[in-house]
Design a protein that fits this description.
The protein is of the alpha+beta class and about 110 residues long. Helices cover about 45% and strands about 20% of the residues.
Length: about 110
């Protein structure tokens, strides 16, 4: 099953090995992602854990940044502008999914 994705460019980005990395892809969250991010990981302070951000981290790729580096803490350490951008991108993805579902519903008898 192909997942819905949306691409964008972070306003600030991150520098990895001297290279600016700011091209992002956010895919839709799966039930597996939701279950995985619902529980606070070992070693993480519960007061500092935000499941919504963990969900974004699970579904996010940033060109030039290894996937295993994109964690809840990584997202928390992004600039405020980049964080707001990712939250907005997630809303756009949700809207796109709703449009897709509505379009499919009109095609079904």
């Amino acid at each position: 099953m192909e997942q819905l994705k949306i691409m964008g460019v972070l306003p600030v980005g991150v520098v990895v090995n001297g290279k600016l990395c700011n091209v992002v892809t956010l895919r839709e969250m799966t039930l597996r992602d939701s279950l995985k991010t619902a529980t606070v990981p070992d070693g993480v302070d519960e007061a500092q854990y935000y499941p919504k951000l963990a969900g974004i981290a699970a579904c996010l790729t940033i060109d030039g940044v290894p996937k295993e580096k994109i964690t809840h803490d990584f997202v928390l350490d992004l600039s405020e502008e980049d964080g707001e951008y990712l939250l907005n991108l997630k809303q756009q993805l949700s809207a796109k999914k709703k449009e897709q579902v509505q379009a499919a519903a009109t095609l079904t008898p």
